[in-house]
Design the sequence.
Protein backbone atom coordinates (compact mmCIF):
# COMPACT_ATOMS: atom_id res chain seq x y z
CA UNK A 1 0.00 0.00 0.00
CA UNK A 2 1.54 3.30 -1.03
CA UNK A 3 1.64 6.34 1.25
CA UNK A 4 -1.34 8.07 -0.37
CA UNK A 5 -3.52 4.96 -0.13
CA UNK A 6 -2.49 4.45 3.50
CA UNK A 7 -3.27 8.08 4.33
CA UNK A 8 -6.68 7.88 2.65
CA UNK A 9 -7.43 4.64 4.50
CA UNK A 10 -6.45 6.20 7.83
CA UNK A 11 -8.54 9.27 7.16
CA UNK A 12 -11.52 7.11 6.21
CA UNK A 13 -11.29 5.19 9.49
CA UNK A 14 -11.03 8.44 11.43
CA UNK A 15 -14.04 9.84 9.65
CA UNK A 16 -16.10 6.78 10.54
CA UNK A 17 -15.38 7.42 14.23
CA UNK A 18 -16.73 10.94 14.01
CA UNK A 19 -20.41 10.75 14.75
CA UNK A 20 -22.59 13.54 13.50
CA UNK A 21 -26.27 13.27 12.76
CA UNK A 22 -27.58 13.60 9.23
CA UNK A 23 -29.41 16.73 10.31
CA UNK A 24 -26.14 18.32 11.48
CA UNK A 25 -24.37 17.40 8.25
CA UNK A 26 -27.11 18.71 6.00
CA UNK A 27 -28.19 21.86 7.85
CA UNK A 28 -25.87 24.28 6.03
CA UNK A 29 -25.85 22.71 2.56
CA UNK A 30 -26.73 25.00 -0.32
CA UNK A 31 -27.56 23.37 -3.66
CA UNK A 32 -25.86 24.95 -6.67
CA UNK A 33 -26.79 25.32 -10.32
CA UNK A 34 -23.96 24.46 -12.70
CA UNK A 35 -23.49 25.33 -16.34
CA UNK A 36 -23.08 22.55 -18.88
CA UNK A 37 -19.42 23.59 -19.19
CA UNK A 38 -18.87 23.13 -15.43
CA UNK A 39 -20.52 19.69 -15.55
CA UNK A 40 -18.33 18.61 -18.46
CA UNK A 41 -15.21 19.85 -16.62
CA UNK A 42 -16.21 17.92 -13.48
CA UNK A 43 -16.81 14.72 -15.45
CA UNK A 44 -13.41 15.12 -17.12
CA UNK A 45 -11.72 15.69 -13.77
CA UNK A 46 -13.24 12.52 -12.27
CA UNK A 47 -12.39 10.56 -15.42
CA UNK A 48 -8.76 11.69 -15.26
CA UNK A 49 -8.50 10.82 -11.56
CA UNK A 50 -10.10 7.40 -12.02
CA UNK A 51 -7.76 6.68 -14.94
CA UNK A 52 -4.68 6.96 -12.72
CA UNK A 53 -2.97 3.66 -11.83
CA UNK A 54 -3.51 4.16 -8.08
CA UNK A 55 -7.27 4.64 -8.64
CA UNK A 56 -9.34 2.60 -11.12
CA UNK A 57 -6.56 2.53 -13.71
CA UNK A 58 -8.78 3.27 -16.71
CA UNK A 59 -11.63 5.52 -17.80
CA UNK A 60 -15.01 4.41 -16.52
CA UNK A 61 -17.66 3.35 -19.01
CA UNK A 62 -20.06 6.14 -18.05
CA UNK A 63 -20.14 9.21 -15.78
CA UNK A 64 -23.32 11.11 -14.90
CA UNK A 65 -23.85 14.38 -13.05
CA UNK A 66 -26.16 14.18 -10.01
CA UNK A 67 -26.06 17.57 -8.27
CA UNK A 68 -23.75 20.19 -6.81
CA UNK A 69 -23.70 21.86 -3.42
CA UNK A 70 -21.71 24.19 -1.20
CA UNK A 71 -20.97 23.06 2.35
CA UNK A 72 -20.85 25.21 5.49
CA UNK A 73 -17.15 25.97 4.85
CA UNK A 74 -17.91 27.26 1.33
CA UNK A 75 -16.42 24.19 -0.36
CA UNK A 76 -18.15 23.36 -3.62
CA UNK A 77 -18.82 19.70 -4.23
CA UNK A 78 -20.07 18.13 -7.44
CA UNK A 79 -21.69 14.72 -7.02
CA UNK A 80 -21.21 12.28 -9.89
CA UNK A 81 -21.97 8.63 -10.38
CA UNK A 82 -20.05 6.34 -12.68
CA UNK A 83 -19.96 2.79 -14.00
CA UNK A 84 -16.71 0.89 -14.46
CA UNK A 85 -18.31 -1.29 -17.13
CA UNK A 86 -21.75 -1.23 -18.78
CA UNK A 87 -23.04 -3.93 -16.40
CA UNK A 88 -21.39 -2.74 -13.18
CA UNK A 89 -23.34 -0.90 -10.47
CA UNK A 90 -23.25 2.88 -10.21
CA UNK A 91 -20.43 4.12 -7.97
CA UNK A 92 -20.14 7.49 -6.22
CA UNK A 93 -17.50 10.08 -7.04
CA UNK A 94 -17.05 13.77 -6.24
CA UNK A 95 -15.16 16.73 -7.62
CA UNK A 96 -14.33 19.67 -5.38
CA UNK A 97 -12.04 22.61 -6.04
CA UNK A 98 -10.49 20.77 -9.00
CA UNK A 99 -9.84 17.64 -6.92
CA UNK A 100 -11.64 14.41 -7.67
CA UNK A 101 -12.16 11.45 -5.37
CA UNK A 102 -14.01 8.19 -5.03
CA UNK A 103 -13.85 5.28 -2.61
CA UNK A 104 -15.38 3.19 -5.40
CA UNK A 105 -18.42 2.40 -3.29
CA UNK A 106 -21.96 1.95 -4.57
CA UNK A 107 -23.99 5.06 -5.28
CA UNK A 108 -27.22 5.31 -3.25
CA UNK A 109 -29.67 8.06 -4.18
CA UNK A 110 -31.16 8.06 -0.69
CA UNK A 111 -27.82 8.95 0.92
CA UNK A 112 -26.01 10.77 -1.90
CA UNK A 113 -25.55 14.03 0.04
CA UNK A 114 -24.35 12.36 3.25
CA UNK A 115 -22.04 10.02 1.34
CA UNK A 116 -20.65 12.92 -0.68
CA UNK A 117 -20.07 15.02 2.43
CA UNK A 118 -18.09 12.14 3.92
CA UNK A 119 -15.97 11.91 0.75
CA UNK A 120 -15.48 15.68 0.83
CA UNK A 121 -14.27 15.49 4.44
CA UNK A 122 -11.77 12.75 3.50
CA UNK A 123 -10.54 14.83 0.57
CA UNK A 124 -10.21 18.02 2.66
CA UNK A 125 -8.36 16.18 5.44
CA UNK A 126 -6.01 14.58 2.94
CA UNK A 127 -5.08 17.89 1.32
CA UNK A 128 -4.75 19.65 4.67
CA UNK A 129 -2.18 17.02 5.68
CA UNK A 130 -0.35 17.35 2.35
CA UNK A 131 -0.21 21.14 2.71
CA UNK A 132 1.03 20.80 6.31
CA UNK A 133 3.79 18.40 5.23
CA UNK A 134 4.82 20.77 2.41
CA UNK A 135 4.97 23.72 4.82
CA UNK A 136 7.14 21.71 7.21
CA UNK A 137 9.54 20.94 4.36
CA UNK A 138 9.89 24.64 3.46
Sequence:
Amino acid sequence: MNNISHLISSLSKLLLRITRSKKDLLKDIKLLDLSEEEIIKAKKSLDEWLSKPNALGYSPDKIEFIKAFMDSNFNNCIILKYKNTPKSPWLLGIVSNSWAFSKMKKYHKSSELIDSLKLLEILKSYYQKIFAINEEDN
Remarks:
- Residues 45 and 99 are 7 Å apart (CA to CA).
- Helices lie at 3-17, 22-26, 36-51, 112-137.
- The chain has a mean pLDDT of 85.
